[in-house]
Design a protein that fits this description.
Number of strands: 15
CATH architecture of the largest domain: 2-Layer Sandwich
Number of helices: 7
Strand content: 15-25%
CATH class of the largest domain: Alpha Beta
Strand order of the largest sheet: 4-3-5-6-7-8-9-10
CATH superfamily of the largest domain: Fructose-1,6-Bisphosphatase, subunit A, domain 1
Order of helices and strands: HHEEHEEEEEEEEEHEHEHEEH
Largest sheet: 8 strands, mixed
Shape: globular
Number of domains: 2
Helix content: 25-40%
CATH topology of the largest domain: Fructose-1,6-Bisphosphatase, Chain A, domain 1
Bound molecules: 6-O-phosphono-alpha-D-fructofuranose
Length: 333
């Protein structure tokens, strides 16, 4: 007997019912994000077929060439969320500043969304997995007026929900609330995300370490000592670990969530804060991994405790199986 099909809509509505005072706005917002990502998915799946690959020519605040799909994904999310009436504004990797939705409906919404519309986009033309990462906060300014920067510069510990969609061999949405982490696989024949990975948990120990080992020449001593530990021939302790690195944070962390392990993008001698952005990459991923029983640290503090000072700030990150993260940061402290 096949298990009952539970769509993302069914699931979010069931979760809402557990909170009598819930207005259903958060559930509706998650469904809106799911719709936007289904639209993005269609273009990602045919990227090799239409003239949508290649340098768009513009560059984003990171100084990175914007692949056309980046821009398309960004615009799709903005358009869907602006029409949704559940979102008062957005901040995105592809936009220098936040975007306030100041129409009469959106100003009365209580949520803001931050996202990396297409993370890992340099992998598009080699057909490696890429993803959309999103973070949902309750606004701190009163409803009825346009959102301001402080609605976006909130600690990750204040997140209401966070998730990602991975465009890989299958398209999956994984999202976390305080109730836990659940995975939904897109069933193309009905165009619905269906519950496929209920109550996801990350193992306390893993056997995979994931980082760009090409940066070793720039690493601080603490990082190279941890790498030596991972590569040490110690059968009793199950080492050497395997090294896996896709170069797409969503794909590397999706594997970490399912198989266990540690992903790290540490600070190095040239980049005191590493590469990955706090608000729309590290915080949402840290929220998901912690909700699944794992750990996420900057090496100095819990990622979710970092007080943001600007939209595109970067932080070092050590994230994944709790015992592996603790081992890695023990070399720093
Ligand atoms: P590097 C992709 O550009 C990204 O932002 C993350 O998805 C990924 O984890 C990281 O950068 C890869 O960076 O320096 O190893 O290419």
């Amino acid at each position: 007997m096949s298990r009952k099909l539970v769509t993302l809509d069914d699931f979010t509505i069931d979760q809402t019912r557990q909170f009598p005072k819930a207005t259903g706005q958060l559930s509706s917002l998650l469904r809106d994000i799911g719709l936007a990502c289904k639209i993005i998915n269609k273009q990602v799946n045919k990227a090799g077929l239409v003239d949508i690959i290649g340098q768009f020519g513009a560059t984003n605040i990171q100084g990175e060439e914007q692949m056309k799909l980046d821009v398309y994904a960004d615009e799709t999310l903005i358009n869907v969320l602006k029409r949704s009436e559940d979102c008062a504004g957005i901040a995105s990797e592809e936009n220098d500043d936040f975007v306030a939705f100041d129409d009469e409906y959106s100003v009365n919404s209580k949520y803001v969304v931050l996202f990396d519309p297409l993370d890992g986009s340099s992998n598009i033309d080699v057909n490696a997995p890429i993803g959309t990462i999103f973070a949902i906060y309750k606004r701190v300014t009163p409803v009825g007026q346009a959102v301001t920067a402080e609605d976006f510069l909130q600690e990750g510990s204040r997140l209401m929900a966070a998730g990602y969609v991975i465009y890989g061999s299958s398209t999956m949405m994984v999202y976390a609330t305080r109730l836990g982490v659940n995975g939904f696989t897109l069933e193309p024949s009905i165009g619905e995300f269906c519950l496929s990975h209920p109550n996801m948990q990350v193992k306390e120990n893993g056997k995979i370490y994931s980082l760009n080992q090409g940066n070793t020449c720039k690493f601080e001593a603490a990082t190279t000592q941890f790498l030596d530990y991972c590569m040490e021939d110690n059968k009793d302790e199950g080492r050497p670990y395997s090294h896996r690195y896709i170069g797409s944070m969503v794909a590397d962390l999706h594997r970490t969530l399912i198989k266990g392990g540690i992903f790290l993008y540490p600070a190095d001698k040239k980049n005191a804060n590493g590469k990955l952005r706090l608000l729309y990459e590290c915080n949402p991923m840290a929220f998901i991994i912690e909700a699944a029983g794992g750990m996420a640290s900057t090496g100095k503090e819990r990622v979710l405790d970092v007080t943001p000072t600007e939209l595109h700030q970067r932080v070092p990150i050590y994230i994944g199986s709790k015992n592996m993260v603790q081992k890695a940061i023990s070399y720093i402290s």
